[in-house]
Write a structure and sequence with these properties.
By secondary structure, this protein is of the alpha/beta class. It has 24 helices and 25 strands. The chain folds into three domains: 189 residues, Rossmann fold, CATH 3.40.50.2000; 160 residues, Rossmann fold; 222 residues, Spore Coat Polysaccharide Biosynthesis Protein SpsA, Chain A. A hairpin with a 4-residue loop joins strand 11 and strand 12.
Amino acid sequence: MNIWLLTTEFPPYFGGGIATYAHTTVQILAQKGHTVTVFVNDDGVDSMVTTMQGTVRIVRFPNTAGPRLAALGPMSRLSYNFALWTAHFVQLEGPPDIIESQEYMGIAAHLLQRKRTLDPVFANIPVVVTAHNPKFILDPIDRAPTYQFPDYWTGEMERFCLSAADGVISPSHYLQAALMKDLPHLHPEVIPNPYILPAKESRAQERKLLYVGRLQYFKGILTLLESLAPLWDQGFSWPLEIVAGDSYFFPKGEMMKSYILRRYARYFKKHLIRIHPAVAPSALHQIYSEAYALVLPSVFDNLPYIVLEAMAQECLVVATRRGGQQEVIEDSVSGILTEPDGMSHALQQAVSLRAEDRAEMGANARARVAWYTDPNRIYEQKIAYFKQVANQKAVRMFPFLRRDLPERTAVSGADSSLSVVIPYYNLGPYLLDTLKSLDRVHQSTPLAIIVVDDGSTDGVSIAALRKAQQRYPYIVIHRTANHGLAQARNFGAQQAATPYIAFLDADDMVDPRYYPRALSILQHYPNVSFVGCWAQYFGADQQIWPTWNPEPPYALYHNPLNTSALIYRREDFLTCGQNDPDMEYGMEDYESMIRMIGHGCRGVSIPEPYFFYRVRAGSMSRGFNPDNQMFLYRLIVQKNPDIFARYATDLLYLFNANGPQYLVDNPGQRSPTATR
C-alpha cells in the first residue's frame, strides 16, 4: 500500500508520544514493504523540503502565512498547510491508498473539510484518524480556558477530524470511552500503539522514584506531590526525580515548574525533589534502568509510551487507573495500579516490596509489553482496518458535530437547476459586474437569474437595468415597491421555479466553480440544506474571510458563514428561512440561518474563496455600530429562543472568554479582549 502519515512530531524532534508513535509506525510499515510518506510541520525550514530516511519519504514544511492565510490563526493555518501540501503531492503523483493523521490540534480538519465538500483532489482518498490525547478532552481536565479562542476552535477542529474521518483508531479502550462520551456518534476501533521492544539495559537501580512526562495538571504531577508531601513530613526518605518539559498552569497564571518550585520549596532544599529537563526517548532507557519505580499519577491519559518504555526496562511502574495503562498493567503482577487518592498507599506498597517480588514484577512487565504492543500483531490489525475502511461505501450524510438538533433531510431528484436571486436597490454602478460573473457560470451551468428591483429611484440604476436586460436577455427582472432587502430576497425566492436557489447582492460576484460545487454537495448529502464558501474581499479591502460550517454554539455567538450569498434547497428556505423584515438594520441573512439551523436545516462551507464581497463605504454592513449590532443580536435571540436556550451555558462561556460578538471575526485567532 501507498500510505501517507500526517503528524506534528517526527524525529529528530520528540515532543511526546506522537513522535514515538509516528516513528515506530513508519518503521514497521516500511519493513513490511509499504511505500510511506510522512508530512510533518517543521518551522526550522523556510519552505517545503523532501528528504529520505531509508525508504521513507519525509515532507517537511513551515507553518507560514501568505496572503490567503493571513486571516487564519496558527492552528487553523497549520491545518490549511497540511491540506495544501498533501494536495500538492496528490496532484503531482496521484493519490495514496490511504492517509492516516493524528487528531491532536486538528491538523487534518481542512483536508477533511475539502474531502467532505467533494473536492476532487481528496474526495476518493480514505482517511483514518488515530487519536492520541485530544485537546478538547484534556483542556477541561487541565483547568485551561476551554472556550477562549483559538483554543476552543482547535477543539472543534479535533472533533471534526474524528467525526469526518472514514475511520478512527483509539489506542486504548479508556480513550475510546472518553471520545464516545463527547461524540456519541463515534465508533473508534481499538488498536494499541505498536512498540518495538528495545534491548534490556542492565539494572543499576537507585533508591529514587521517577516521574517522566510534562509538568501538567492532567498528568497528575500535583496529585503525586500532594501524595508525597505528607509522607516526607512523616519521615519517608525516597526522593522524586522529575524528567519533564514545562507547561503553563492556567489557574495560577504561571508556568507549572515555577509554581512547584515555590509551593514545595522546603522539599527541594532537602533534596527530596529534583527537576531535570526533558530528554530524547533514547536517553530514557538508562534513566528507567536506574530508577526504583516510575510513577504515573495521571488524572487522564491515553496510553503513554513512557509506561511501555519503563516496563520494557523491567522498571516497576506505579500508575493510576485513569488511562490506557490499566489495560497493559496487571495490578500486582506487572505493576501497581491505584486511584489517584490512593497514591500514597501505592507508593508505600511499592517501596516495601521484596527484591525478588519486584524483580518478578519487572520480568512480567517486560513480557506483558512484548505481547500487548507486538508490532506484527498490531500491524496485521491496522492493515486489516485500513482495507476495511478503503472498501466502505461513500459517506452520504454530512458529519455534523452537533447531532442533538432536529435534522431535516431531503431526497434529491435529477433536477439540479438553480435560480440566482439578486436583490437590487440603486446599485447601478455595480450590477453589470455582478451579472458578468454570473454569465461565466451560465456558460457551463445554466442558471435562471432573477433581479428584484426593490423600487430603485436614481437614473443611473434604472438605466443599468435596461442595459442588463439588453446584454443578458435570459435574465428576468421584477420591479416592486421599496420594501427592503429581506422582502426582496423572499419575493425572488417565491418567483423561482427551480429546486435550488442562490442569493447574490447586486454589488458582489462569484467564482464560476462556486455554484456547481455547491449543487453537487446539496445533491450528495440529504442532510445539507445550504452551502457557503470563503469570501474574498475586494474594493476597499483585499483580505480573505475564512468561513466555517455553522455549528452551534459558535454559530449562535458569531456568524461563521457568508450568509448573503448562500445556495439553498428552495423548499427549505421557503419553509424555514425566509428573511425577517424586522431586521431592518441588517443581519437578516444571519437570523435566517439561525432559524434554519433551529429547524434542522444544516449548512456547510466550501473552504475556497469562491465568493467575492465588495467592500464599499455605503454598504449596509458599513453602517453597523455597537448600538445597532446589540439591538440586532437581541432581536435574533428573541426570534429564536429555543435554540439559544439549548446552548445557553456554552454561550455564557463563550461570552466570558471572548467578549461581545461584534469584536470577533475569526475563532481561529485570539479575541481582542483576551488577557493571556
